[in-house]
Design goal:
Order of helices and strands: EHEHEHHEHEHHHHHHHHHH
Strand content: 5-15%
Structural class: alpha/beta
Shape: globular
Helix content: 55-70%
Number of helices: 15
Number of strands: 5
Strand order of the largest sheet: 2-3-4-1-5
Length: 294
């Protein structure tokens, strides 16, 4: 998929968000045009109609379309085969909640691509290819600070833009402080604060957080995914096990959708206050049940 002509339809599942984005970026470069859509059915309706002005091939991205998931059944393969032939360009559907991903694997295995957490050596391999100008020791440093690809990638972006003299003069701990990497401990506490519905604790963290506030929106999403996994399989090992009793599946789903809505605003609105968005989400933690997306 990273080379040649992409297929017309993919379903991306799995927990490695950064690798998904890497593949999406590659598809965006192929088409030079991408559009986020809310419902797959609406796109297909457009594709099925005759156009006065022919549509140009482009990338369409659908995230967490509940309607699409509910439509999957044993006849889905035939339906999708007919559907994909109508798409001018490529449609990528993204799902992360386990019950959704298992349904995709069950009914549409030929279209489903799983991005599970990858080995650290593969993370290094990706980063060395992405940043050939960065010293391998700094790549290793980035991976030690963030075992996931996305976190290490963001660190490499900062290192790439840093003055080489500064990097030569500072030790790893000093570089961590300069780049705000010491905020990793705050992110972990924020994760615990969300899981325990600790309003005061979460507010205290965002007030003192040294990293980019937008990254805390991703913590909201990943925390909800981990909590949903715990409810699906209480025997699995997780640092959130002690907080799982604070949640039910409906609350997790509504919290996830609220957090994703705020993340979408941060990406699409020219003026967006991330701090106020986080305060809004933290405030929702106090409700039982969690309100649906506004």
């Amino acid at each position: 998929m990273l080379s040649g002509t992409p297929k017309s339809f993919y379903i991306f599942i799995g927990e490695e968000y950064g690798i998904k984005e890497k593949y999406l970026d590659n598809l965006k470069k192929h088409y030079h045009d991408a559009t986020e859509i809310s419902k797959v059915s609406e796109l297909l309706n457009v594709m099925s109609r005759k156009q006065i002005i022919p549509l140009k091939p482009k990338l369409y991205i659908s995230r967490y379309d509940e309607e699409f998931i509910q439509s999957l059944d044993k006849n889905s393969t035939d339906k999708i085969n007919k559907m994909s032939s109508k798409i001018i360009g490529t449609l990528v559907c993204i799902f992360e909640i386990p019950k959704h991903t298992s349904k995709c694997v069950k009914y549409l295995p030929d279209y489903t691509v799983s991005f599970d957490k990858i080995n650290i050596e593969f993370v290094k391999k990706y980063l060395n290819a992405d940043f050939p100008q960065i010293d391998k020791n700094l790549i290793d440093f980035s991976v030690r600070r963030h075992s996931d690809y996305k976190g290490a990638y963001n660190t490499c972006i900062s290192l790439k833009n840093a003055d080489s003299y500064v990097l030569e003069q500072y030790d790893n701990e000093s570089i961590s402080k300069v780049l705000g990497l010491n905020s990793a401990s705050s992110e972990k506490q924020f994760r615990y604060g969300i899981a325990s519905r600790n309003f005061a604790g979460c507010i205290s963290i965002i007030d003192t957080y040294s990293g980019q506030l937008e990254s805390l929106l991703y913590i909201f999403l990943s925390t909800m995914i981990d909590l949903e996994r715990l409810l699906s399989n209480p025997k699995q090992k997780s640092d959130l096990i002690r907080y799982s009793k604070c949640w039910n599946v409906t609350d997790i789903y509504h919290m996830f959708m609220n957090a994703y809505a705020e993340l979408e605003k941060s990406r699409t609105m020219s003026v967006y206050d991330v701090y106020n968005g986080l305060v809004y989400l933290i405030g929702l933690l106090q409700f039982s049940p969690i309100p649906e997306k506004r």
